[in-house]
Amino acid sequence: MLVEVQSWPYAFPESQDFPKWDQRGNVSGRLLVKERYISDDYISAKGAYVGLASPGDIGSWQRESKNYQFWAKADDDGYFCISNIRTGDYNVYAWVPGFIGDYKYDVVVTITEGSDIDIGDLVYEPPRDGPTLWEIGIPDRSAAEFYVPDPNPKYINKLYVNHPDKFRQYGLWERYAELYPDKDLIFTVGVSDYTKDWFFAQVTRKKDDNTYQGTTWQIKFQLSNVNKNSTYKLRLALASATFSELQVRVNDPKVNHPLFSSGLIGRDNSIARHGIHGLYWLYNVDISGAKFVEGDNTIFLTQARGNNPFLAIMYDYIRLEGPPIFNKKI
């Protein structure tokens, strides 16, 4: 297999649609991260996924399916090399494990036959307004770090017994109602452990009449010294969504109009396909300080759509940021 990988692109195809290795080009460079609330220095984009795809918006490579893409993984110092690229115009895209959001290099890169382009140092500034008040999960575009239950004994796939990919077992969506028969999930910051107390997917709940309804999860946390005149930021990174609608309410679950609604999103079907991620979504929700109180607060996350067991959201990472600190070094 390794011999075949290193032999690509092959020399034997005679089609003009398959350029030989010397008719392609290469791109290299280094990706750095600038995150002023973590470090005053640049951070190496260790393990970043860097790729060339058709020119488009940030993150458009996820949905672009008609043209070619070429990707590589950066080393520990953020250096990358993408080889054997077909001629044409591309944007450079990237995402970095450990940081939310997507990177795009705004300059169009033109690949010609035999070109070897060094684009130098690129700097990604992830979305960030203020200091982290609390966070849930790991920003890696996967829900694998959350609680994945053991399967119903009737449905066990023996190929995945004692396997790290527990999520590949059939019927895990049904375990949610068994674990939370009367009330939906409640996560208390500073007390709960997301590896044990955050179900890997916000699925629907099956009712007695065999219909399904959406669910509302709660994140409980404490705040001191609330700045009523400032804006807080809730970052919601989703690893997957299937015909879902995510609604956000703060301290009042019954208010008619949510503070935020995603609208109908997603067609991944990751739950039914026993996956742990699909397309990535990132929502940045402004929350007025006036909506918070000193002491106990609750954020309500509602997946509002029902109808079947596979309408669901998988969270990647959630973070609440406080108001900006303007004297923080940049």
From TrEMBL:
Residues 45-118, 132-320 form the Rhamnogalacturonan lyase domain. Pfam families: CBM-like, fn3_3. Signal peptide: none annotated. GO terms for molecular function: carbohydrate binding. InterPro entries: Carb-bd-like_fold, Galactose-bd-like_sf, Polysacch_Lyase_4, RG-lyase_II, RG-lyase_III. Keywords: Signal. It comes from the Eukaryota. This is Rhamnogalacturonan endolyase. It comes from Lupinus luteus.
